[in-house]
Specification:
Elements lengths: L4 E6 L3 H13 L2 H20 L5 H32 L7 E6 L2 E6 L2 E6 L5 E4 L3 E5 L5 E5 H4 L3 H11 L5 E2 L2 H9 L1
Parallel strand pairs: 5-8
Antiparallel strand pairs: 1-2, 2-3, 3-4, 5-6, 6-7
């Protein structure tokens, strides 16, 4: 049997990391609760104008602003700092994906990930996220895998169990065409 092999190089840019961080923030219970709380506080602030003292109105308005507006601004500022300071984002990563493993190389550093080492793979709308653990992940921008995406998805589907693959091929391929 012929060895399937897909190679691509990723370079993580600020918008890739921002997409990843926003996805994780707003696809969790705490992220959704934060937005809901912020919206409720803004509504309470608007309703309380002229009915309660100004301190109450300002306080609820501040909390609403903080939880709905400041959160994405804070994420943006952290991402901007991470892109500049974390060495892993400065150099591209070469991926060599086969039926046995995923080989990663960045500069002089190489690492082999066996398929059994992969926790899961998700699609964020712009990126594939390859989780090594529930916390550690590699971001794979779709723009970097464009020419070999179908072959990559085929290997992923063969090597991972269905519950580890958290995306629809149709959605991924549609996102590339946009």
């Amino acid at each position: 049997m012929e060895q399937e092999k897909v190679e691509f190089v990723t370079d993580i840019q600020m918008n890739d990391l921002m997409d990843f961080k926003i996805y994780h923030n707003y696809h969790s219970f705490s992220g959704l609760a934060t937005v809901l709380f912020g919206v409720i506080m803004i509504v309470i602030s608007c309703v309380s104008i002229g009915r309660f003292n100004i301190a109450y109105t300002l306080m609820t308005g501040f909390f609403g602003f903080f939880f709905t507006i400041y959160t994405p601004i804070g994420i943006y500022l952290r991402v901007k700092k991470q892109i500049k300071t974390i060495p892993a984002f400065k150099e591209p990563v070469k991926y060599t994906v086969t039926n046995e493993k995923i080989a990663l190389s960045q500069g002089d550093i190489t690492e082999d990930l066996l398929w059994s080492d992969i926790y899961k793979i998700k699609f964020t709308g712009k990126n594939m996220v390859l989780y090594i653990t529930s916390i550690n992940a590699n971001i794979i921008p779709l723009r970097c895998v464009d020419g070999c995406l179908e072959d990559f998805l085929e290997i992923v589907r063969k090597q991972l169990k269905p519950y580890q693959v958290k995306f629809s091929d149709k959605k991924v391929l549609a996102a590339v065409k946009r």
